[in-house]
Prior knowledge:
mainly alpha; 12 helices; about 325 residues; about 5% strand
Amino acid sequence: MWIGGFLIVGAAAHAAIFMVRDYDPTTRYNDLLDRVLRHRDAIISHLNWACIFLGFHSFGLYIHNDTMSALGRPQDMFSDTAIQLQPIFAQWVQNTHALAPSVTAPGTTTSTSLTWGGGELIAVGGKVALLPIPLGTADFLVHHIHGPGRGGTCQVSAWDHVFLGLFWMYNAISVVIFHFSWKMQSDVWGTISDQGVVTHITGGNFAQSSITINGWLRDFLWAQASQVIQSYGSSLSAYGLFFLGAHFVWAFSLMFLFSGRGYWQELIESIVWAHNKLKVAPATQPRALSIIQGRAVGVTHYLLGGIATTWAFFLARIIAVG
């Protein structure tokens, strides 16, 4: 998934290089690409409002739930037990796949996958391998939160889009795998007793906890990080070291992303000034990284640090509890 994300962004980067270096509008008159470019104002303006709408409302649903939870008003939250936002289209797809075999192939005994619904669970060695996966309001919210959330007229060059697109790719994939990990531990994976009672790893807390930002921080990131945080002295210690080191690499990126070039240039020049005052000035005149270089360094460390942190977090958790 990560590799695919980088390939897609890389393809877009090469498309941008083509548009800047090789595209000649005089030889491409009225073809498909030329028509798209001539409509770019309408396309970009519509994408802007769509991105702003999706980003604002998807995050706004979570903020609403956090606010209502903090005020002690669970009846006013978006949840399966209060104001429902059911993923009706996803549920329809599930139901269609579950019922399709009996209609199109009457001789079949089950659907292509238990995840669609119907049928019994599959257990291996007393552990649940697969069972029907119900979808609810929590799945609807998390499905929409990773949509586009950036718009406007700043940072619209080709390289700006590659820079921002890398963050979008990272955020989108992170939410998808976070959703999968918690959903499976909550509603699918677990143990089965001799009496056939299933005990899930996190006790089915996804539907109740993942509908607030606080729930994601408390019951997913914090609660499930205990294995990797406490891994020193165990066979999982390597993941703990990776977790710590990757956090540093990720945090290092913020030094480049949260400050402008002017800050670094002035810092460097103040150091040069101090050397001149002490008459130990070198012959060179150092310069800060350019804006493009600083962004490249920042996004590289952000992605590598974030991905390695996530990898260590997931593996330490599932090895310990699985």
